[in-house]
């Protein structure tokens, strides 16, 4: 039995093509992936991301638990701030990439990937149980939140019609607890597209009303509902990692190019020794962006070659709707990771020429 | 959803049409709709021999790669060059502008083994179009 978000009926009414994702029945497209992708880049798009998980951490001991669990330094956060981070295994592989919200010194929340919701909560419970933590409790609140993402150049203008909160006062990677269409909501200036916009968290009972109201007030700016298909092409163009592709239990944040969220001088977090060793010894493989220089579309699991030798694997790929060329992310041997390195992607019987490029693929 | 009367159809959602002494081949409206935005087409070279029921090329959407199966056996004598620049024609004009290949068939009668428009439409409706 697939899980359904509170908007399932509305997606079907809009004629969405539905697909299974992480155990959820989700819209992959409405009008078409390319249309929806371009709508986000040029106007605005509305995503149902209610399948994502939310896990609360409370108590005077909250920060201590979070610091043990995560690679980034949560002590840098102030109230109302958000931080991109990750949980790692002792061997350095990744449990999940997450965003961390600080409400107060004793109140935090993680937003986690839908496919890892249960796994992450179980992991946190295990760490909590086996460790020496006091004064901290965790709660899986995923069922208590609906979540929407409103992304695109017109996002501020559109949301501004449904809230009195001063959106201009919320800076990037910060949030405010306000009202959207009269419903209390966490208004977070974050997103997974590279465009300006928000992620909104609120009670599931208000989901249909907020979704419908946003589409109504956003119509004049060209706001379109957007499915998981375009969510993927948008994040790919920005070189944002997708767990299960660029990150996994076998791929560390350092290998995935996320060294900037790994604070190796933070004491004693899970995976620190392994990551220190990786940093010290130097990576043997690294995530790069590549562009095909011949017609074709790179896709996950296609092999990557240099001078006829297999040197890596594509982790994600697509035809970029913005650039109209095949783009991909690939884990390749460190010697082939330099920008400009000529590579080949194995696509069925062909070896298709490609080149390592700077990322993100588009300028934002 | 369109099912032109004059065409023949396969269960893999290709259409075939006799034009002079060649068979023109494409994919159906149902197929392009199921695929979504087509972004790339891989077709055989002129001179390639194709076999009925076997894959001879690929149509790629943003999300997926789909094999195309030859409706009849023979030699590929013409390939639609416009599809490399404009693969999206498959979405906008699957029966006219976006023909894929033209085949010189071994057996002129082989095309009669395929479904006619009514049979294909019934087949598609039974398959449970979503």
Task: Tell me what you see in this structure.
- The complex is a heterodimer of chains A (364) and B (130).
- The relative contact order of chain A is 0.15.
- Chain A has helices spanning 8-13, 33-42, 62-69, 117-130, 155-160, 207-218, 228-237, 272-281; strands at residues 17-21, 24-29, 44-48, 53-58, 81-88, 94-104, 107-112, 137-140, 146-151, 175-180, 183-188, 197-202, 223-225, 285-292, 303-306, 309-319, 326-333, 342-347, 350-357.
- Chain A contains eight helices and 19 strands.
- In chain A, the strands form four sheets. A six-stranded mixed beta sheet of chain A has the order 10-11-12-9-3-13, with helices on both faces. A six-stranded antiparallel β-barrel of chain A has the order 14-17-16-15-18-19. A five-stranded antiparallel beta sheet of chain A has the order 5-6-7-4-8, with helices on one face.
- Chain A is α+β, with helices and mostly antiparallel strands.
- In chain A, strand 11 (183-188) and strand 12 (197-202) form a beta hairpin.
- Chain A has three domains: 8-50 and 145-237, Gyrase A, domain 2; 53-143, Alpha-Beta Plaits (2-Layer Sandwich), CATH 3.30.70; 284-357, Elongation Factor Tu (Ef-tu), domain 3, CATH 2.40.30.110.
- Chain A is globular, with a radius of gyration of 21 Å.
- With 130 residues, chain B is of the alpha+beta class.
- Chain B has a single domain (14-122), classed as Beta Barrel (OB fold (Dihydrolipoamide Acetyltransferase, E2P)).
- Chain B is 19% helix and 34% strand.
- Chain B has four helices and nine strands.
- Chain B has helices at residues 29-35, 82-85, 89-92, 117-126, and strands at residues 8-9, 14-19, 22-27, 38-42, 49-50, 55-61, 65-69, 74-79, 101-105.
- In chain B, the strands form two sheets. A six-stranded antiparallel beta sheet of chain B has the order 1-2-3-9-8-5. A three-stranded antiparallel beta sheet of chain B has the order 4-6-7.
- In chain B, strand 6 and strand 7 (65-69) form a beta hairpin.
- The two termini of chain B are 12 Å apart.
- The mean pLDDT of chain B is 94.
- Chains A and B meet through helix 2 and helix 7 of A and strand 4 and strand 6 of B.
